[in-house]
Protein backbone atom coordinates (compact mmCIF):
# COMPACT_ATOMS: atom_id res chain seq x y z
CA UNK A 1 0.00 0.00 0.00
CA UNK A 2 2.80 2.41 0.87
CA UNK A 3 4.46 1.79 -2.50
CA UNK A 4 1.15 2.47 -4.30
CA UNK A 5 0.68 5.78 -2.47
CA UNK A 6 4.28 6.72 -3.24
CA UNK A 7 3.85 5.90 -6.93
CA UNK A 8 0.81 8.17 -7.16
CA UNK A 9 2.15 11.00 -4.99
CA UNK A 10 5.42 11.08 -6.96
CA UNK A 11 3.61 11.19 -10.30
CA UNK A 12 4.68 14.45 -12.03
CA UNK A 13 1.13 15.85 -12.13
CA UNK A 14 0.30 14.95 -8.52
CA UNK A 15 0.69 18.58 -7.44
CA UNK A 16 -2.76 19.14 -8.95
CA UNK A 17 -4.12 17.18 -5.99
CA UNK A 18 -3.17 20.18 -3.86
CA UNK A 19 -4.38 22.79 -6.37
CA UNK A 20 -7.86 24.22 -6.95
CA UNK A 21 -8.97 21.21 -8.99
CA UNK A 22 -11.46 18.53 -7.99
CA UNK A 23 -9.19 15.55 -8.67
CA UNK A 24 -8.34 15.06 -4.99
CA UNK A 25 -12.01 15.11 -3.91
CA UNK A 26 -12.95 12.82 -6.79
CA UNK A 27 -10.24 10.30 -5.89
CA UNK A 28 -11.35 10.39 -2.25
CA UNK A 29 -14.93 9.55 -3.21
CA UNK A 30 -13.86 6.84 -5.65
CA UNK A 31 -11.52 5.16 -3.16
CA UNK A 32 -14.11 5.38 -0.38
CA UNK A 33 -16.67 3.70 -2.63
CA UNK A 34 -14.20 0.94 -3.47
CA UNK A 35 -13.41 0.45 0.21
CA UNK A 36 -17.05 0.09 1.19
CA UNK A 37 -18.17 -2.22 -1.61
CA UNK A 38 -15.10 -4.40 -1.13
CA UNK A 39 -16.30 -4.81 2.47
CA UNK A 40 -19.91 -5.41 1.45
CA UNK A 41 -21.26 -2.06 2.65
CA UNK A 42 -23.29 -1.46 -0.50
CA UNK A 43 -25.35 1.53 0.61
CA UNK A 44 -22.29 3.44 1.83
CA UNK A 45 -20.48 2.47 -1.38
CA UNK A 46 -23.38 3.82 -3.41
CA UNK A 47 -23.47 7.03 -1.36
CA UNK A 48 -19.76 7.64 -1.99
CA UNK A 49 -20.42 6.87 -5.66
CA UNK A 50 -23.14 9.52 -5.63
CA UNK A 51 -20.64 12.07 -4.33
CA UNK A 52 -18.12 10.92 -6.95
CA UNK A 53 -20.52 11.43 -9.87
CA UNK A 54 -21.61 14.72 -8.32
CA UNK A 55 -17.95 15.80 -8.36
CA UNK A 56 -17.12 14.59 -11.87
CA UNK A 57 -19.28 12.94 -14.51
CA UNK A 58 -16.72 10.13 -14.72
CA UNK A 59 -17.93 9.00 -11.30
CA UNK A 60 -20.81 7.19 -13.01
CA UNK A 61 -18.21 4.64 -14.17
CA UNK A 62 -18.26 3.25 -10.62
CA UNK A 63 -21.31 1.29 -11.73
CA UNK A 64 -18.98 -1.11 -13.54
CA UNK A 65 -16.83 -2.24 -10.57
CA UNK A 66 -19.78 -1.95 -8.15
CA UNK A 67 -21.94 -4.38 -10.14
CA UNK A 68 -19.05 -6.74 -10.79
CA UNK A 69 -18.03 -6.86 -7.14
CA UNK A 70 -21.62 -7.28 -5.99
CA UNK A 71 -22.11 -10.29 -8.25
CA UNK A 72 -18.67 -11.72 -7.45
CA UNK A 73 -19.43 -11.75 -3.74
CA UNK A 74 -22.60 -13.68 -4.63
CA UNK A 75 -20.76 -16.16 -6.87
CA UNK A 76 -22.51 -14.57 -9.90
CA UNK A 77 -25.77 -16.18 -8.82
CA UNK A 78 -28.76 -14.01 -9.77
CA UNK A 79 -30.87 -15.68 -7.08
CA UNK A 80 -28.61 -14.22 -4.39
CA UNK A 81 -29.28 -10.61 -5.36
CA UNK A 82 -30.79 -8.73 -2.43
CA UNK A 83 -32.33 -5.32 -1.76
CA UNK A 84 -28.91 -3.84 -0.93
CA UNK A 85 -27.99 -4.17 -4.60
CA UNK A 86 -30.12 -1.09 -5.19
CA UNK A 87 -27.24 0.87 -3.68
CA UNK A 88 -25.87 0.93 -7.23
CA UNK A 89 -28.70 3.30 -8.20
CA UNK A 90 -27.25 5.96 -5.91
CA UNK A 91 -24.22 6.30 -8.19
CA UNK A 92 -25.95 7.89 -11.22
CA UNK A 93 -28.09 10.00 -8.88
CA UNK A 94 -25.12 12.32 -8.30
CA UNK A 95 -24.90 13.11 -12.00
CA UNK A 96 -28.67 13.48 -12.12
CA UNK A 97 -28.62 15.99 -9.26
CA UNK A 98 -25.99 18.05 -11.05
CA UNK A 99 -28.00 17.88 -14.30
CA UNK A 100 -31.02 19.30 -12.45
CA UNK A 101 -28.80 22.05 -11.04
CA UNK A 102 -27.64 22.89 -14.59
CA UNK A 103 -31.24 23.01 -15.77
CA UNK A 104 -32.25 25.37 -12.97
CA UNK A 105 -29.33 27.75 -13.46
CA UNK A 106 -28.46 27.41 -17.16
CA UNK A 107 -31.70 25.97 -18.63
CA UNK A 108 -29.76 23.00 -19.96
CA UNK A 109 -29.65 19.58 -18.30
CA UNK A 110 -26.42 18.77 -20.17
CA UNK A 111 -24.67 22.10 -19.72
CA UNK A 112 -21.69 20.32 -18.14
CA UNK A 113 -21.29 18.27 -21.32
CA UNK A 114 -21.96 21.08 -23.79
CA UNK A 115 -19.36 23.22 -22.01
CA UNK A 116 -16.67 20.85 -23.33
CA UNK A 117 -17.06 22.44 -26.76
CA UNK A 118 -15.38 25.57 -25.35
CA UNK A 119 -12.21 23.48 -25.10
CA UNK A 120 -12.79 22.03 -28.56
CA UNK A 121 -13.63 18.61 -27.14
CA UNK A 122 -15.96 16.21 -28.91
CA UNK A 123 -16.70 12.49 -28.87
CA UNK A 124 -14.35 10.56 -31.17
CA UNK A 125 -13.01 7.05 -31.56
CA UNK A 126 -10.45 6.21 -28.82
CA UNK A 127 -7.29 6.00 -31.00
CA UNK A 128 -7.90 9.27 -32.84
CA UNK A 129 -6.66 11.50 -30.03
CA UNK A 130 -3.37 9.60 -29.89
CA UNK A 131 -2.95 9.63 -33.66
CA UNK A 132 -3.74 13.34 -33.92
CA UNK A 133 -1.29 14.14 -31.15
CA UNK A 134 1.44 12.07 -32.80
CA UNK A 135 0.79 13.77 -36.15
CA UNK A 136 1.17 17.23 -34.58
CA UNK A 137 4.37 16.20 -32.80
CA UNK A 138 5.91 14.96 -36.06
CA UNK A 139 4.88 18.04 -38.03
CA UNK A 140 5.75 20.78 -35.51
CA UNK A 141 9.29 21.99 -34.65
CA UNK A 142 10.55 19.69 -31.87
CA UNK A 143 11.39 22.28 -29.20
CA UNK A 144 8.30 24.48 -29.31
CA UNK A 145 6.11 24.70 -26.22
CA UNK A 146 3.15 23.15 -28.07
CA UNK A 147 5.24 20.22 -29.26
CA UNK A 148 6.65 19.52 -25.79
CA UNK A 149 3.15 19.79 -24.31
CA UNK A 150 1.87 17.20 -26.78
CA UNK A 151 4.81 14.89 -26.09
CA UNK A 152 4.13 15.02 -22.35
CA UNK A 153 0.40 14.35 -22.71
CA UNK A 154 0.95 11.56 -25.24
CA UNK A 155 3.61 9.96 -23.03
CA UNK A 156 1.30 10.06 -20.01
CA UNK A 157 -1.50 8.50 -22.03
CA UNK A 158 0.73 5.74 -23.41
CA UNK A 159 2.13 4.95 -19.96
CA UNK A 160 -1.31 4.58 -18.40
CA UNK A 161 -2.54 2.58 -21.41
CA UNK A 162 0.33 0.13 -20.93
CA UNK A 163 -0.42 -0.16 -17.21
CA UNK A 164 -4.13 -0.75 -17.88
CA UNK A 165 -3.26 -3.54 -20.32
CA UNK A 166 -0.91 -5.08 -17.75
CA UNK A 167 -3.74 -5.08 -15.23
CA UNK A 168 -5.43 -7.74 -17.41
CA UNK A 169 -2.49 -9.74 -18.77
CA UNK A 170 0.92 -10.79 -17.53
CA UNK A 171 2.29 -11.41 -14.03
CA UNK A 172 0.98 -8.08 -12.71
CA UNK A 173 -2.65 -8.64 -13.69
CA UNK A 174 -5.45 -8.39 -11.17
CA UNK A 175 -6.99 -11.70 -10.16
CA UNK A 176 -10.71 -12.40 -10.09
CA UNK A 177 -11.02 -11.27 -6.47
CA UNK A 178 -9.66 -7.83 -7.40
CA UNK A 179 -10.84 -7.64 -11.02
CA UNK A 180 -13.12 -4.72 -10.09
CA UNK A 181 -10.00 -2.52 -10.03
CA UNK A 182 -8.96 -3.54 -13.55
CA UNK A 183 -12.48 -3.03 -14.91
CA UNK A 184 -12.70 0.44 -13.41
CA UNK A 185 -9.22 1.29 -14.71
CA UNK A 186 -10.16 0.29 -18.26
CA UNK A 187 -13.47 2.18 -18.14
CA UNK A 188 -11.89 5.31 -16.64
CA UNK A 189 -9.07 5.38 -19.19
CA UNK A 190 -11.49 4.89 -22.08
CA UNK A 191 -13.59 7.78 -20.77
CA UNK A 192 -10.52 10.04 -20.62
CA UNK A 193 -9.49 9.42 -24.23
CA UNK A 194 -12.97 9.55 -25.80
CA UNK A 195 -13.07 13.34 -25.87
CA UNK A 196 -9.90 14.73 -27.50
CA UNK A 197 -9.52 18.42 -28.24
CA UNK A 198 -9.15 20.04 -31.66
CA UNK A 199 -7.20 23.10 -30.47
CA UNK A 200 -3.71 21.85 -31.33
CA UNK A 201 -3.37 19.72 -28.20
CA UNK A 202 -5.62 16.69 -28.81
CA UNK A 203 -4.75 15.08 -25.48
CA UNK A 204 -4.95 18.30 -23.51
CA UNK A 205 -5.03 17.70 -19.73
CA UNK A 206 -4.20 14.02 -20.25
CA UNK A 207 -1.34 14.17 -17.76
CA UNK A 208 -3.74 15.34 -15.04
CA UNK A 209 -6.83 13.35 -15.98
CA UNK A 210 -5.10 9.96 -16.00
CA UNK A 211 -4.61 10.26 -12.24
CA UNK A 212 -8.26 9.19 -12.04
CA UNK A 213 -7.15 5.78 -13.35
CA UNK A 214 -5.78 4.86 -9.93
CA UNK A 215 -5.60 1.06 -10.56
CA UNK A 216 -2.81 1.81 -13.04
CA UNK A 217 -0.69 3.04 -10.14
CA UNK A 218 -1.28 -0.23 -8.30
CA UNK A 219 0.27 -2.01 -11.28
CA UNK A 220 3.04 0.59 -11.43
CA UNK A 221 3.90 -0.05 -7.78
CA UNK A 222 4.29 -3.76 -8.61
CA UNK A 223 6.64 -2.89 -11.47
CA UNK A 224 8.67 -0.75 -9.05
CA UNK A 225 9.06 -3.55 -6.52
CA UNK A 226 12.87 -3.43 -6.64
CA UNK A 227 14.69 -0.69 -4.75
CA UNK A 228 16.68 0.44 -7.81
CA UNK A 229 13.64 0.80 -10.06
CA UNK A 230 11.78 2.78 -7.40
CA UNK A 231 14.75 5.13 -6.90
CA UNK A 232 14.98 5.66 -10.67
CA UNK A 233 11.25 6.44 -10.85
CA UNK A 234 11.58 8.84 -7.91
CA UNK A 235 14.46 10.76 -9.49
CA UNK A 236 12.78 11.07 -12.88
CA UNK A 237 9.37 11.90 -11.44
CA UNK A 238 10.72 14.51 -9.03
CA UNK A 239 12.69 16.22 -11.80
CA UNK A 240 9.61 16.41 -14.01
CA UNK A 241 7.45 17.58 -11.11
CA UNK A 242 9.76 20.53 -10.43
CA UNK A 243 9.70 21.54 -14.10
CA UNK A 244 5.92 21.19 -14.48
CA UNK A 245 5.19 22.93 -11.19
CA UNK A 246 7.35 25.91 -12.15
CA UNK A 247 5.58 26.10 -15.50
CA UNK A 248 2.20 25.93 -13.77
CA UNK A 249 3.05 28.60 -11.18
CA UNK A 250 4.25 31.00 -13.88
CA UNK A 251 1.12 30.48 -15.98
CA UNK A 252 2.69 28.52 -18.83
CA UNK A 253 1.59 24.98 -18.03
CA UNK A 254 -2.15 24.92 -17.59
CA UNK A 255 -3.85 21.54 -17.79
TrEMBL record:
Query: What molecular function terms (GO) are annotated for this protein?
Result: alpha-1,6-mannosyltransferase activity; GPI mannosyltransferase activity
**Keyword list, A-Z:** Endoplasmic reticulum, Glycosyltransferase, GPI-anchor biosynthesis, Membrane, Transferase, Transmembrane, Transmembrane helix
Localization terms from the record? Endoplasmic reticulum membrane
A GO CC term attached to the entry: mannosyltransferase complex
Task: Provide the membrane topology annotation.
Answer: Multi-pass membrane protein
Q: Describe which pathway this protein belongs to, using the record's wording.
A: Glycolipid biosynthesis; glycosylphosphatidylinositol-anchor biosynthesis
UniProt keyword annotation of ATP-binding present = no
* Bilayer-crossing regions: 12-36, 42-64, 85-106, 150-172, 178-195, 207-224, 230-254
- What is the recorded name of this protein? Glycosyltransferase RgtA/B/C/D-like domain-containing protein
Source organism of the structure: Tengunoibacter tsumagoiensis
Amino acid sequence: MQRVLSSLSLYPAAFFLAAAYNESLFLLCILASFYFFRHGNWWLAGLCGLFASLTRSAGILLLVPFCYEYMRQRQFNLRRIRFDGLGALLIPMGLGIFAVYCQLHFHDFLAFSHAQSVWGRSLRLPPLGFLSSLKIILSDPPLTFASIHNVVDLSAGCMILALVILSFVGPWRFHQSTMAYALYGAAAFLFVILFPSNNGAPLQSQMRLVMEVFPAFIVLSSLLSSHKSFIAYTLIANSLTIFFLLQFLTGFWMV
